[in-house]
Amino acid sequence: KIVVTGALGQIGSELITRMREVYGADHVIATDIRNNGSEVVNNGPFEILDVTDGKAMHDIVKKYDADTLIHLAALLSATAEAKPLLAWNLNMGGLVNALEVARELRCQFFTPSSIGAFGPSTPKDQTPQDTIQRPTTMYGVNKVSGELLCDYYNHKFGLDTRGLRFPGLISYVALPGGGTTDYAVEIYYEAIKNGRYASYIAEGTYMDMMYMPDALNAIIQLMEADESKLKHRNAFNVTAMSFAPEEIAAEIKKHIPSFTMEYNVDPSRQAIADSWPNSIDATAAKEEWGFKAKYDLSSMTKDMLEKLMLKLVKNS
Ligand code: VAH
């Protein structure tokens, strides 16, 4: 049985559906701080959980006799930068609770890291798996601390902890909340709804990105990988593409010729983006557990626009 925290978030809402298909609905317990009445809540076991309540988390994992804990509940980079102390308490308090529950109940453990775990002094192009990590954002501090804490629980307590440094994730099911890369999701919605988008990230700002189906495959593939083959654990660089705002705009224009892009740069999110790599190197993930992304900018854009048209028409 698998317990997932933050199950109603951008990753969780699709990971739950995918894992229920793979492992059976009753084997995947979704938890989140609220009940949004979505299919994640209605199509299988669901529990209300505030991850800052370690005892409540322990009781849920014990109740279902889970052997895997996937901890996704967290504040993303832009929100964390606006509320750094809340971010520390939630992101680190939630993580240490989850690691303690996994240690006590002997669960395999997954939590995501991010390209946000790198900072201005990190090599920016083809950022290596092992390199300098001095992030200048609270989110980045949380992610580096999280990577170190997960490695600690592995070498100190023998816990099977695994993680992925995700790039910006693009999806059409649940909107991301409070990220820096969210422009690359918003642009698709705006292109369909208004035929135009004002990007808060400046032209020429390169960031790694990946389509959500590839992110879900990566989580499942990593968690099922042969532990003896893993030289790294927390956390693997994974990416599918790196692009700047003008490039995703140009790709959208191939499908919506009338689409227009403008720029209304948000200094705080631009500063976060500028501190991150332009592109990261995913060789370790490819070599140690066969990571391979299927979608590039062209195939992602085609699929995103098709799926969003259906979704927006259905909801209109
Ligand atoms: C964010 N989407 O923007 C997240 C992610 C690499 C970006 O960590 O904060």
Could you characterize what this model shows?
The protein is 45% helix and 15% strand. By secondary structure, it is α/β, with parallel strands linked by helices. The longest helix has 22 residues, at 84-105. The strands form four sheets. The chain has a six-stranded parallel β-sheet, sandwiched between helices. Strands 6-8-12 form a three-stranded parallel β-sheet. The model has no long low-confidence stretch (mean pLDDT 97). It is globular and about 55 Å long. The chain starts with a strand and ends with a helix. The chain has twelve helices and 14 strands. The site of (3R)-3-hydroxy-L-norvaline has 14 residues, from strand 9. (3R)-3-hydroxy-L-norvaline binds next to strand 9. Residues 2-237 form the NAD-dependent epimerase/dehydratase domain. It comes from Fredinandcohnia quinoae. Belongs to the NAD(P)-dependent epimerase/dehydratase family. This is L-threonine 3-dehydrogenase.
Describe the structure in brief.
The chain is an alpha/beta fold and about 325 residues long. It is built from 12 helices and 14 strands.
Mean pLDDT, nearest integer? 97
The total of helices stands at 12
Q: Which percent band covers the strand fraction?
A: 5-15%
Portion of residues within helices = 40-55%
Domain NAD-dependent epimerase/dehydratase: 2-237
GO molecular function: L-threonine 3-dehydrogenase activity
Family: Belongs to the NAD(P)-dependent epimerase/dehydratase family.
Protein name: L-threonine 3-dehydrogenase
